[in-house]
């Protein structure tokens, strides 16, 4: 996903969101497609977007917010520059994923991976034979440990 900066003109953004929602108004069950379209356009769903979508689709703000907050793929803030996603499924747990995840969260909080890095959990990449597995900015890697993860994110600190 291309990271777009937040628009300075909130009114213009809301107009775009309203147009996106209006274009799907005749669809059966338009909420999810509208939310995906807003994510594709802006990279995240702002509270003002939720209000506009609710208005256009004749839903409550609580209904729209509930869907946005339920699904992990919907962001309510701009994405960080870098994302490390680590598997915490059973196969990866058996080869050290829990310790890796804890170490990675600590390192990210300390700024060891550079600025604007997020560590998130996933519960299976289907790469079980090469666990612990993860993705680094969307690229699947296996046999991770804290040292290898640090090496793979070295360029972010430059």
Description:
With 158 residues, this protein is of the alpha+beta class. It folds into 2 domains: 10-70; 82-157, 3-Layer(aba) Sandwich (Glutaredoxin), CATH 3.40.30. It has helices at residues 10-23, 31-42, 47-57, 61-70, 90-93, 97-109, 146-152; strands at residues 82-87, 117-122, 134-136, 139-141. Strands 2-1-3-4 form a 4-stranded mixed β-sheet, covered by helices on one side. α1 (10-23) runs parallel beside α3 (47-57). The mean pLDDT is 93.
Q: How would you describe this structure in keywords?
A:
158 residues, alpha+beta, Glutaredoxin, 2 domains, 4-stranded mixed sheet
Give a summary of the structure in a few sentences.
With 158 residues, this protein is an alpha+beta fold. It has helices at residues 10-23, 31-42, 47-57, 61-70, 90-93, 97-109, 146-152, and strands spanning 82-87, 117-122, 134-136, 139-141. Helix 1 runs parallel beside helix 3 (47-57) and helix 3 crosses helix 4 (61-70).
Task: Summarize the SSE layout with pairings.
Elements: H1 10-23, H2 31-42, H3 47-57, H4 61-70, E1 82-87, H5 90-93, H6 97-109, E2 117-122, E3 134-136, E4 139-141, H7 146-152
Parallel strand pairs: 1-2
Antiparallel strand pairs: 1-3, 3-4
Helix pairs in contact: 1-3, 3-4
CATH superfamily of the largest domain: Glutaredoxin
Structural class: alpha+beta
Strands across the major sheet, in which order?
2-1-3-4
Largest sheet: 4 strands, mixed
Question: Total strand count, please?
Answer: 4
Q: Supply the number of helical segments.
A: 7
The amount of beta strand, in percent, is: 5-15%
Radius of gyration: 19 Å
Write the CATH fold name of the largest domain. Answer: Glutaredoxin
Q: How many angstroms separate the termini?
A: 23 Å
Q: CATH top level of the largest domain?
A: Alpha Beta
Helix content: 40-55%
Tell me the domain tally.
2
Overall average residue pLDDT:
93
Shape: elongated
């Amino acid at each position: 996903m291309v990271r777009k900066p937040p628009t300075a003109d909130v009114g213009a953004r809301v107009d775009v969101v309203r147009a996106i929602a209006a274009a799907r108004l005749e669809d059966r069950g338009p909420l999810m497609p509208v939310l995906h379209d807003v994510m594709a356009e802006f990279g995240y769903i702002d509270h003002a977007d939720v209000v506009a979508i609710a208005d256009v689709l004749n839903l409550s703000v609580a209904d729209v917010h509930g869907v946005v907050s339920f699904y992990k793929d919907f962001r309510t803030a701009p994405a960080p520059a870098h994302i490390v996603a680590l598997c915490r499924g059973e196969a990866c747990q058996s080869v050290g994923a829990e310790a890796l995840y804890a170490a990675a969260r600590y390192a990210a909080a300390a700024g060891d991976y550079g600025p604007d890095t997020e560590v998130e959990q996933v519960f299976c990449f289907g790469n079980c034979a090469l666990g612990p597995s993860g993705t680094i900015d969307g690229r699947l890697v296996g046999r991770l440990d804290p040292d290898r993860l640090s090496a793979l994110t070295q360029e972010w600190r430059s």
